[in-house]
Amino acid sequence: MLNTVDVIVWDEISMQSRFALECVERLLRDVAAPSLAHTLFGGVTMILGGDWCQFLPVIQGSTRQETLDSTCKNSQFWRHFTTFTLDENLRMGAEEEQYTRWLLSVGTGDNFYSDDNILLPSSMCMITEDDVIEWIYTPELLNDSSMLARVALLTVRNCDVEELNIKVPEKLAGGTVDLVGIDTPSVKEDGLHGLPCDNAEHFHNIMPASLPPYILRIKPGSIVMLLRNVDVSSQLCNGTRLVVISFHNENKLLRCKNLTNGEDAYIHKMNLDYTNEKTVKGPQHCFTTVIALLCPYYGLTSCFYRTSATRKRQAYDDLKALVNHSGRLIVSETVPSLPANALARRSHG
Known about the structure:
Its EC number is 5.6.2.3. A hairpin with a 4-residue loop joins β14 (270-281) and β15 (286-297). The strands form 7 sheets. Strands 13-12-11-10-16 form a 5-stranded antiparallel β-sheet, with no helix packed on it. A 3-stranded mixed β-sheet has the order 5-20-19. A 3-stranded parallel β-sheet has the order 17-6-18. It starts with 6 loop residues before the first strand and ends with a strand. It has helices at residues 18-31, 64-69, 97-108, 129-136, 139-142, 145-148, 158-164, 308-311, and strands at residues 7-10, 45-48, 112-114, 117-118, 125-126, 151-155, 177-180, 184-185, 215-218, 223-226, 241-248, 253-258, 264-268, 270-281, 286-297, 300-302, 305-307, 318-321, 330-331, 342-345. The chain is α+β, with helices and mostly antiparallel strands and 349 residues long. 22% of the residues are buried. It contains 8 helices and 20 strands.
């Protein structure tokens, strides 16, 4: 199939390692016709899109310079690309020109005043996180599951998502159901090689982005998100949002509504493999420790809050935003770029 491709459009290139771009270049030349085997990208036209003011590649334990060195701008092929700048924001009205300039200054770092802090307009600030939650999750919205499914709040870090996702379900009617996972240290026969561990209790507090919390507290009406591909043909994929309808078989089976296609879906526990590899660098040596688990979980996580990186894959009618001294960010309403829809928690002291 690749040798019949004429054009490849690659979005969010700023998040990709230059090694990924170089790997694709070699692959396309390998499968190209002999006459194009020595042509850049095998003669395929490459269209790259991205914003260097957004996320850069994530490299565990790297320095800032190592992160910059890994970007596609440092690839040997970057000089062969022609850069076109998109300078018209079609989401913005003419009345939002001032906000547009302010937003660009945030991305370019022109309005930092101290210790990487920026000055936010007072119209974008609220005193507490609870004020922001009350602002978006009104009683009318909480009683309308169809509207609730079209709303989300954004924050930057996974640990903030986990904490804030606990607050919103408390406002929903009905009793809370605790869905408890099982953490089992893997053995050699599982095909995962990790450190031996006699007590799995320690792992209950590990909250990697790829796994749901050990105890998932949800109610009927809660919005959840799949963390694994379950059935691609039924649009039950990693990142799909669902609304919980009911619990069955002693809470071992969840009936949900797929918010992508409106169809019912039944979710049960599944084995989720987790391997955490950490490399420790010393002055004279370097060693790697690996922890591997087999985790029968539901493969779901609560989804009233999401990280801004995850939001790129889906659209919402309502997005709201919050930033505080610890780095939390939350953006709001129909068009997240409008200043009236961006809020920050004001930090005192």
